[in-house]
Amino acid sequence: KNQVEQSPQSLIILEGKNCTLQCNYTVSPFSNLRWYKQDTGRGPVSLTIMTFSENTKSNGRYTATLDADTKQSSLHITASQLSDSASYICVVRRTGNTGKLIFGQGTTLQVKP
Amino acid sequence: NAGVMQNPRHLVRRRGQEARLRCSPVKGHSHVYWYRQLPEEGLKFMVYLQKENIIDESGMPKERFSAEFPKEGPSILRIQQVVRGDSAAYFCASSLTEGPSSYEQYFGPGTRLTVT
């Protein structure tokens, strides 16, 4: 079954600290993996997209890694800010032309001052 | 350069009424996707449309739900005879084209449907 599992479900950290979110997937055949940030009451916004051949990709303080062999990805947030408080969603796309995305349930991150 | 627009942002319907959700894609985008997010759950794919065509509706419930993306105007997701279980956030996304080099989907702010 094509699934995307994320951990932890929720996380609280202090402002300025780093954190790492995890994503495991069983989607096959694999096309690419994305991390989205979803603020409360808003639509998801793309942070990174990685294909099979990419191991790491950065977007400012966000760094995503991908191990296609073990089907694991992580999102590392450096020097967290209050505005990082949001849900972070791991999304996997299967190969094919329908563009269908398979979403994880998200990790809810709360950054406290 | 407007992004994906959805309206209304909030919609309240009584059981048995019809709900119409509208989505205007990014200007120039011809591919539209609808997703549903139930409370405490992740987004689930519903349907993928190109102008005047339904490409993939495998995530759409077989009854009461329909979607269209006419040649002119926004994409519409229609839910007939709504039930309490339809209460959710409905997100629309659009992309320029489909294929390995053009796979970025841009999401709208969502429509939150509440069925009373």
Give a structural overview.
The complex is a heterodimer of chains A (113) and B (116). With 113 residues, chain A is mostly beta strands. Helix content of chain A is 0%, strand content 58%. In chain A, strands 2, 4, 5, 9, 10 and 11 form a six-stranded mixed beta sheet that branches. The termini of chain A are far apart. The relative contact order of chain A is 0.34. The model of chain A has no long low-confidence stretch (mean pLDDT 92). The model of chain B has no long low-confidence stretch (mean pLDDT 91). Chain B has strands at residues 5-7, 10-13, 19-24, 31-37, 43-50, 53-56, 65-68, 75-79, 88-95, 106-107, 111-115. Chain B is mainly beta and 116 residues long. Chain B is built from no helices and eleven strands. In chain B, the strands form two sheets. In chain B, strands 2, 4, 5, 6, 9, 10 and 11 form a seven-stranded mixed beta sheet that branches. In chain B, strands 1-3-8-7 form a four-stranded antiparallel beta sheet, with no helix packed on it. Classes of the chains: A mainly beta (113), B mainly beta (116). Chains A and B meet through strand 4, strand 5 and strand 10 of A and strand 4, strand 5, strand 9 and strand 10 of B.
Which short descriptors sum up this protein?
heterodimer; A: 113 residues; mainly beta; 6-stranded mixed sheet; globular; B: 116 residues; 7-stranded mixed sheet; 4-stranded antiparallel sheet; 11 strands; 0% helix; 48% strand
